[in-house]
Design brief:
Mean pLDDT: 87
Oligomer: single chain
Low-confidence stretches: 1-5, 11-15, 17-21, 27-46
Distance between the termini: 14 Å
Structural class: mainly beta
Radius of gyration: 20 Å
Strand content: over 45%
Amino acid sequence: MITKAFQPSIARNNRHGLVCSLKLHFIRLWLLACVVTPTMASENGTGNYGVGVQTVMPGALPPPGMTLFNGYIVYYSADSFRNDDGDSLIPGFKADLHIQALRAVHSWGSYKGLTLSSSVIIESIYAEIEAGGQQDSDFGQALIDFEPLHIGLQVGNWYLQTGTYFWIPLGDYDATALANSSFGYATISQSVAATWQPSPRWELSLDSNVSFNFENSDSNYHSGDLYGLTYHVGYRPFTSKPEWQFGINGFYVKQFNDDELNGVDVPTGFRLQKFAIGPQVVYWFSPAVAVVFKWQHESEVRNAPQGDSFWLQAAFPIPL
């Protein structure tokens, strides 16, 4: 049985991993333009964890025995790549990304009041990139993610959960290409999420994570590790139509150590930073079935593309 208290977290995944996996090629163009040795380069600067995804009840897990399907489609468009000072870095830069992801999460049961869940994600990406007078595109499976254990707890109007993510790249990574659908490196992430519903009309949610990246063996590039925070404040303004929720969502992500190439720190560290904010609309067909549309506009960007993302997300239980 689906309880009224349960409202699903609508999909988990990312587009920042792909966006920043292009950094190696953008910086290579910049360095060549500046007549600097091309052995200095930068690549990912971020993990595969989906900063900006967890904006609907991220602290809540499905009830014991339920299998929940999550899916999303994301369009991300950027027309500038920012440097360490926030200025434009790559002449003629433009990125258009189309991302699709599927996630299934199953709650096995409960133990001493704790809900125990596992999930898996698979993601595919089409990327079209222009930079420095060059253009490239690629399409394919990007990654698969295994989440062996999430532990959830409900205390009154608070929903809390934590879990570990193992991101494994799929497909082929080409270190000489401008666009890659594959990220080319693995990541381990740890998240802690919380949702507070002080009344049936209000929702306040946070999803905090730390991601640790592995070296890309195809490029010998080791992206720095980072911290991310995703937020959402939602309100149901119509008492006669409680299925409609409107709110503000976004994220903050910051890299906390330097990128490395061949074991040597990249000059300036090339540490990524982004802040994003935008509107979100959720329509609840039932307590476990929902559709979400949201927009996230990026600012305060450092060492990464700056753009906008438009999301269509959905969740519903799967009968097994």
